[in-house]
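We were asked to recover a plausible sequence for a given structure. The inputs and outputs are reproduced exactly as logged, with field labels preserved.

PROBLEM: sequence recovery
POSITIONS: 95
GIVEN STRUCTURE:
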């Protein structure tokens, strides 16, 4: 699910899909690596988040993990989380 789709953005589309298909697996995909985008996608029902900078092998890993029932956050975001924890305390968790 691309965050910057039109006419409905990926966050809104995820929320709507989640209402009608609660068991559907959704992975947010975006160039955006900011925590606000990641958290919004997860809060609205995404099962994972991968940036467009991630290698294709990581997208395959994300799909496998999400299909197995896990949440997947790409390495780029994980590194930003670790950096945020070191600078300013814990990164907000997601549901």
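RECOVERED SEQUENCE:
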């Amino acid at each position: 699910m691309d965050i910057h789709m039109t006419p409905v953005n990926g966050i809104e589309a995820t929320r709507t899909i989640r209402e009608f298909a609660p068991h559907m697996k959704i992975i947010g995909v975006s160039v955006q690596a900011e925590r606000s985008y990641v958290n919004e996608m997860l809060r609205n029902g995404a099962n994972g988040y991968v940036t467009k900078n991630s290698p294709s092998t990581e997208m395959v890993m994300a799909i496998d993990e999400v299909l197995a029932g896990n949440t997947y956050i790409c390495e780029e975001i994980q590194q930003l989380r670790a950096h945020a924890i070191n600078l300013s305390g814990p990164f907000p968790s997601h549901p």
